[in-house]
Each structure stands twice: as C-alpha cells, then as structure tokens.
Amino acid sequence: MICKLALLLMVIFAFPIVFYSNSWVIYINESNLFRHNPRDTVYLSVADGYVVIRVWSSRFLNIDSFWLLIGDNRFPMKIQFNLTDYSVWFGYVSYNGSGFKYFFEVKLSNGSIITLLNDRFQQYFVFDGFIKYMQVSWVGSRVGYQIFPDRFYNGDPSNDDYGLIYDSLHYDNTTNAKPVKSKWNDPPLDLLMHCCHQYYGGDLRGVIEKLDYLKELGVGLIYLNPIFLSGSVHGYDTYDHFRIHPMFGTLDDVKKLLEEAHKRDIKVIFDFVPGHVGLGFWAFQDVYVNGPNSRYWDWFTIYRYPFTPGDGRDYKCWEGIGTLPQLNVLNPEVKKYLFNAVMYWFEIGFDGVRIDTPLYLPENYRLEFFHELRDTIKSRFPEAYIVGEIWFQAPDWVNNGPFDSLMNYALGMGILLDYAQGKLNDVGFNHVSGRLADYFAKYSVSVAGMGFNNIGTHDTDRTLTMLGGGGLWDTPSPESILRLKMLSTLQYTMPGVPVIFQGDERGYTGRAGPRGPDEQRYPIQWDRLNTDVYNHYRYLGWIKNNLKPLHTSIIRVFDTSGSLLVFTRGYNDEVLVVANNDRISVAYELPPGEWSILYVSSGEEVVIRDRKLIIPPLTAIILVLQKQYSDISTTTEPEWLSSTPVVSTPWFTESYQHGISTSTESPVSTNYLEERSEEQVVKSTGNLLVIFIVITATVVVIVVTQIILRNLNVRV
C-alpha cells in the first residue's frame, strides 16, 4: 500500500500542474501556459528607476487579475499588449540596487487561483539586483535631430575649399572626375557627384549658429553625420579618425559646439565607421607605397599588388566599392586604433556614438568586437549612448547586447510609415496594433525607452516624399502634409527619442538615389519654410519635452481594428494616443477616466461626447488624464506657442467628406486592456478549457499510474 501511494504521488508530482482544491500550482519551466525568465531582459529589466517584470500568458486563459508577489507585498500587473497566442503582462517595483525573490498569483474568471512558480528545486524567481547594462537615463525625454554638416548651414566660408583639396577623386586612379564646389542654392548634380563630391560649404560653426533654432524645436540630441577627415561630402570614407575635416572646422570648433550645445542641455553624438576607410587613409596609403613591406599590410586584405586605388577587384572593400577599403578588424592593432579613436572623442566631450554598418564586420566576430567596445566605453562613460545602424529588428544586439539602441527603421519605416501610408488595416499581425505589439515584445522595456526612432534619414527618401509629397522641386499635396503630421505625432509619442532629419521639420521633399541625385541631401534653404509643418514640429517638441509620461519606457497597445491605432503611455496610462489613417472619420469610445484633448495633428476641431471621440481623417490625437493635463497646463509655454497658431486649415473637399463613416466595419472600440474579463476570450471557452485540463490531467494520472504499477506486478 505504501508503494502504491508513493508511486501515485511521484506521478502526480511529475505533472506540470499541481492541484489543491480550487487552486493550482504551475511551474513555469514545465508549462506552455506562461513564459518568464528572470535572466532574460525581455522579461526583467530596469527602466526609469523601476524593476519592470513581464510575463507571457496564454490567450486561452480567461484571466481576471494578475499579481506580482514579493515578500508580503502584492503588486498588480497589467496587460501591455496582446500577441497572437500570448498576452504580455507587466508589473513594476522601485529599484534600489538590491535583489529579491518573487512569484506570481493569477486569478481566473471562474475563481480558480494559479500560483506561478519557477521550478520544483528553486520555487521562487530570483532577481539578484545586478544589471549588466543600465539604461541611459537621459535619452527618453529628448527630441533628436540629424545633421548632415555640409548641407546644414555655412557659418565659415573661409574653409569651403578644403573639401576639394582632400576629395578621394584625387586618389582614385579609375576615374578622371573632379570634385565640385557649388553655391548654396545650386541644383544637385548627378547621383555620384551630389552624394559624394559636390560641396556646398556647411560646417560646425554653422551648426553652432543654429543651436537656438534647434532648441526652439525642442531638440535635446544632435546626431552629426561624419565630421572626421575624409574624401567625400558624406564622410564615410575616413582618412584619419583623430582629425576633424578642415572643411568643417577645427578641434576648437568641435569643443565650442559641445560647450554651446551643453549650455542648452543638448547632447551630441558622433558618427563612427569601424569597418572601412577611404583611399586617403594614412595606413592604406602606406600599403599602396610600400606593399608587403608596409607595417600596415595586415590592416587590409590585398588580393594583388601592385594595385590600382579605386579598383575594388584588387583588395577587399565595402560592398565592392573601390573607394572604401575594408579594415581587417581581426588584427589587434586595428582594433586598438579604432577603440582609442572612439575613446578620444568621448574624452573631448561627445555624449554618444552612432556605429555605421556593424553587420559588415566578420560574422563570427562582430558581436564580440562590439561587446568589447561597449565595455570599453561604458567603463569610463556609463551614460554614453551607443546606437548601431541596423535596419531590421535585431534583439540580440540590444537586449544585453553591444548597443543601447538600433537605428529603428523597423519601427519608423516598417510600421509607423506603413500605417501613415494607409496600410496595416488588416487583422492580427497584419494590423498596426499587432505589428507594434510584436515589435515591443521582442525588446526589453529598458531598450524600448532608449529607442533611436528615426524615419527618413540621409539614406532614404525624405519622409514627406514617402507619404506622396513628391520630389525636391514639387509642392506637397495637402493630403501628404496631413499624413506627415499624423506620422510625426506617432513618432513623438513612442518610447525613446524621436529623431528627424534636417529639413523634415520645414516640410522638405526629396528622393534618394538611384532614382535621382540624392535630393534628400540637398542643402537647407533657410528662406524656404512650410510654416504649418514647422509649427507642428515645434509643438510636438514642446509636448515631448514637458509631458512626463512620454519620458517613460512604457507603451500599452490596445486591440483595435480597421484604421484605428490606440495606445497609452506611462506607467499609469496617463497619456492616450488615438490615430485614424483613413480618409473618413471614425469613432472611438474612450477608456475610463477624465480625458482632455491636448493636441490634434490635423488641426481639426474635435470634441468628446458621451465618451465618444470622433477622429478626423488622417489624424492623430493626444489626450491626457485631467490631472496630467493640469500639470502640463501650468508649464511655462514658450512665447511662440501663444503667438503662433498651430491649427491647420481644413483641406477636405467633397471627395473626402468630414463625418462619421456609416460603414458597419467602422472601428468603434470599447476594448480596454485593463478589463480583462471581457476582452481576452469568451468566458465559456475559458471555463471549458479549465474543465478539459482537469479531466485530461486526471486521466493521464490514472493511466500512467496503472501502467507503472502493472510493470511492478502490483495489482490495483
């Protein structure tokens, strides 16, 4: 009898779910109903001074409440968003540097209680208090601005000819082309010239002179395209990583820029290219002259010697482009040189670095290389901001990876731009809400709060062009302007730092090559301004600077359908953003709370009636809870905010009637994530699932027990 009982208990104990009357114990490592791993930053990270803990729960479970338990304290958890098969819950506690043990308690709609534990040997989950890579605290509250120096502003005409002197065409033996110095308003030449060898004269003093302009936009972060000695306009063919290109100014100009920017609380990050150099790079020139006898021969991969500079068949180069010899970063001397250069510029006073094309380093070495670079930087400058140029989602590079953020093309162009173009109105993953949920589920909360959220850059069409605004010399349509304003409102309300490319705030258009001469890099014409677009960006900057929930790392994406996108920001959902990418108005029922309208991107008059919000076509609306509205309304507004109207003139014609769609598919939603008993699944489905699990478990226990006992010749 004792043997029977022991075997029965062994079988029951081996099953993932332990039953105690109306309560269950689930060990998370034995069940697919829940997912959590405290060693994975996707599930546990420190953001905004909190330990943020996330759990994935199966959407088949009908959950009423979810609790995080630490000692005698219970902390409520909320759904952050829904994925296809799972819901993502989050809870948070203050971080004081100490660790703690914790577990979870889940209440189902039928009253059952699930105690969620780690495993049978270490039942509690453990956070040891150690965070390998802390969140950079200053990033999430700022607005970013990308500057392409030669095309921004000419503050010192005396240095304009240096671009011609150092241009790589002088080293390139495969062409007879010559660089060109153009007047500020000269039209762009062909793709090769305008991209690389047509100089306009912008410089660092020009940036210094425009710092007040940037501050008025709310800018708190400048991203400078390369400023080191190089052979082109773009600067990605470096000659010397320790020297400023004379066409941009001097080291003193850099120091002055940093000093003046920091006076205005503007951070500055520099662009750094670790994988390739230019034809005039001092070590490459030594190899060209001395061949295998050069001490720098192993800094490169030479296929044949003597070689022809500019001929990519003679040596390894980036993308086969002969003017960009590739460095051998496996050589310890090369790595030391690059690391020393990066640290030199941090010592000068830069606040961060953007790493160009990291994926072009050797695949089996690049993560190791950049982890070591990160450790080197962070050991001296823990608040340094490190951004990697990767165009797709790459969690391994940021979740305890070498970078604080990627250039978030995957968010800006892959989701938000698609939505602003009128796409992503399907269901599930093909709806904008599904895409956003999937995107943020892959990254830790800490990483989300440091997102470098760009859309258009020097490498793409201008944002307005991608929204139908036309090319460089075209007049954007009213519809494209509305789409731009909706898109930028979403960009500015995402976690992280919104980064705009110079001129986007002025309503500029321009197509990138190879369809044209890289029009997006055309110089800013300071007498040309779309006032409506400019005022819109200024107002967004003011909102981003002053609305505290937008500084946090938390976004909650609501389940919606059709043209609606709805999400909240802040740990207590203090900010609500509702967008409509259709050409007709739609209605949305607001979640509980006293909401006030803070901003309407289209400038249309919008009112709330019976908790219904009517969203005009191609519009994003920012709403805030009444308390938050009171807080921001007492913030001192800049003079221009009261003197310059930010309301747009309605552009709708008879073709775009302003009114509520009469379609039965018009998305009127009351699906609030916090009301879980009504929105996860139908109750009966959840109850049937519980019954099914209990019956199945019982049958399995009986069958397995009988098999074991029979094998032992024990008669039941």
Structural description of this entry:
The structure is a single chain. The strands form 7 sheets. Strands 22-21-20-19-16-13-24-23 form an 8-stranded parallel beta sheet. It folds into 3 domains: 17-131, Immunoglobulins (Immunoglobulin-like, Sandwich); 144-548, TIM Barrel; 550-674, Golgi alpha-mannosidase II (Immunoglobulin-like), CATH 2.60.40.1180. α8 (332-348) runs parallel beside α9, α13 crosses α14 (478-492) and α14 runs parallel beside α15. It contains 19 helices and 32 strands. Residues 1-15, 642-692 and 711-716 have low confidence and may be disordered.
Using brief descriptors, characterize the structure shown.
716 residues, alpha/beta, Immunoglobulin-like, TIM Barrel, 3 domains, eight-stranded parallel β-sheet, seven-stranded mixed β-sheet, 19 helices, 32 strands, globular, disordered N terminus, disordered C terminus, transmembrane helix, hydrolase activity, acting on glycosyl bonds, membrane, O16G_dom_2
